[in-house]
Amino acid sequence: MRKxxxxxxxxxxxxxxxxxxxxxxxxxxxxxxxxxxxxxxxGGSRVxxxxxxxxxxxxxxxxxxxxxxxxxxxxxxxxxDTINSNQWDTNNRxxxxxxxxLNIYDKQRVERAxxxxxxxxxxxxxxxxxxNQLFPCATKNIKCVNDQLSRLMTIxxxxxxxxxxxxxxxxxxxEQAVSNSFEFAAKQLLTTLLLDPKFLYRTEEGRVQxxxxxxxxxxxxxxxxxxxxxGAGPSSDIVTKVKGGFFxxxxxxxxxxxxxxxxxxxxxxxxxxHADWLGFYFHKGGDTFSKDAFKESQQLLEKxxxxxxxxxxxxxxxxSTYINNNLARNYGLPEQSKDVWRWQxxxxxxxxxxxxxxxxxSIGIDGQETNxxxxxxxxxxxxxxxxxxxxxxxxxxxxxxxxxxxGRDCKIDRVVANTVDNPGCFVCHRFMDSLGFGLENYxxxxxxxxxxxxxxxxxxxGQGQANTQDETGKIINLGDFSSPASLSEVLVTTGAxxxxxxQRLIEFDTxxxxxxxxxxxxxxxxxxxKTESLKDLVRYYVLLPEYRLRK
Length: 551
Description:
It contains 27 helices and 13 strands. The protein is mainly alpha-helical. The chain has 2 domains: 338 residues, no CATH class; 141 residues, no CATH class. The protein has a 3-stranded antiparallel sheet, with no helix packed on it. Strands 1-2 form a two-stranded antiparallel sheet. It has a two-stranded antiparallel ribbon with strand order 5-6. A hairpin with a 2-residue loop joins β9 and β10. α25 packs across α26. The relative contact order is 0.09. The N terminus is likely disordered.
């Protein structure tokens, strides 16, 4: 009975999530699955795809929850704080894990979701306290499960459920009533709710306007800004208020946004945004040094953005950093007799802000050796939101450049001879190597080095250029630099990093890659130039009229 009852959910998952070729046998004749597809969202503008037809997720305004969003949602709806969503996670990022091109449900992921949902439901019902929170009835019976259905649907679906959904679930529970078992019916209900697309997906459909744009409903808007600001869906209390017209008053909307911006969830979500964007999240590792390095970067972000609410540029220009003796020793800074975490000045060492951190400088390396090309590629994509054409298919990017004939066996000479001095390679390498060279004096742990490891004859001058391209492809040299501090200065004074921040913020919100000449980027950048506050920028963005539109 259980498999038969959940079969239509499986078909909906397959149909909605996978751009597939004949991967759901029997879907053509499944009326319930097609009907469920047509009911996603409440805008009424969805065109139900033909059986077997791929769904353009970004166009339809539907995408899966990210790992963090799913994990947070599972913990909140099940009243737990230790649930891990690794079973569902695909870990695809570009640079974020919400990219619609990458974050999809394939058949294997759907099967894992079934197993995990079943295990979670079983674990909850084995815990009396957790069971009472979801089913607060004095007597645990079939009637209790039915009585809690509407409330649970509001919680799990974040206000996106319809009357049709309620009718289907009521019919579903009536099927379970023949067993007359609370445990059986409750487990069936929880498992099915956890597998429902309206729980696993974010839907931003909207109603079509005269200009063929789609305006999000109040509930869709509520979900969108809540996930963007906090990484989690809205509470059932605010869902109920918004359904009652709370967002009809613009002051109420602004007050709610301010409430979200003051929460710890906003802090945590914006640290995740920076860690994903700048890349240091994936290099924190499990060893003591990696954990210390990640903490250093995390604390700088928290201080600048949240505690001080100061200029965002201070994460690049800060002259002090949060370290212990382990990191002080690594950077060549004075240690203290008592090993405590503290804010300590860099001194005149070419360092400032996050670009000096070991967490950031550990990116774009070969093992324990710096690679100016790989590091420059990362800098170009990360700090300038630049695009670099992929290498020719016959080029092994992991193969080190061969030694220079009759020259020193030094890395910088090999790179210059085989890429910079090669016209065919230089077309792309000028956007990578020129950046990587400027940080060559800093090794994979952020330590200053004057020469290559074990090669004192291979001195490093550490001179680089911030070469990038504008939206038309025109080459721009934003300035020379020779350290993290001077690179940070180039980024701040030219405004390049502010524009890139705006672009990445929009992509973090929408799950879509956008062009550098998108008007919204310029609009956010102009505002950011005036305020320099990330919190103010986020507030400005979500209160824009176009934030409620889907084109």
